[in-house]
Model the fold of this input.
Amino acid sequence: MELKTNKKSLSNMVYRDLKEKILKNKLLPGDKLIEMEIASELDVSRTPVREALKKLENDGLVTSFPRKSYIVSKISVKEAKNLYIVRKSLEPLCVELLAEKGLGKNTKYFQEINKELGIAIDNEEEELAQNLIIEWNLALVKSLNNEILYEVMTMVNKRLYRFGNFIFKNKANYGKHYKNLQRIYNLIEEKNPEEAREASERTIDAIYEMFEEQADYRMFRK
Done:
């Protein structure tokens, strides 16, 4: 039993390591994933690597070929567009609902994240800023205390994480996006739901435009 548990633990460790590298584009679409090299780098046998790669294939993050070879999956243009369509349908609704209530006891975490994001951008802490941008969106939704909205938006934001790495290849986009988020935040604080919703819609359009400008389509599939 202990041996089984240890094997599962090693497989999960490899899975988490590779998944993080793929999501943060440390491993790029089209990169080969060689079992022996990964095993050597992480100081494990090939079995947990093989199990982790199968799991990543189920997630759609790697693609397998004959003779058990793998590459990092190319990104789907269609998936990106569909995710932004869903986001533009739901996130402005969340902004509008929160702006109707305004900031209060239930929004303290959201307010803290907003402050931390500003500090991270001022200090040019890029990876932290990118993580906080995702957390900003989730904290916004969490403030509504609507479990269904939170569940759906968590899924959407997690799947968009990989695309975010393209958006912020241009470092100037951190400041542009933060300025847009601050506009939304101020309108929520002012309890102006109509303008807050419109600002949210414009922000999502702007970030998709940033994505299109920065994306390297050699890494994409149709």
Notes: The mean pLDDT is 89. The beta strands are 32-33, 62-65, 69-72, 75-76, 220-221. The radius of gyration is 20 Å. Residues 77-101 form the longest helix (25 residues).
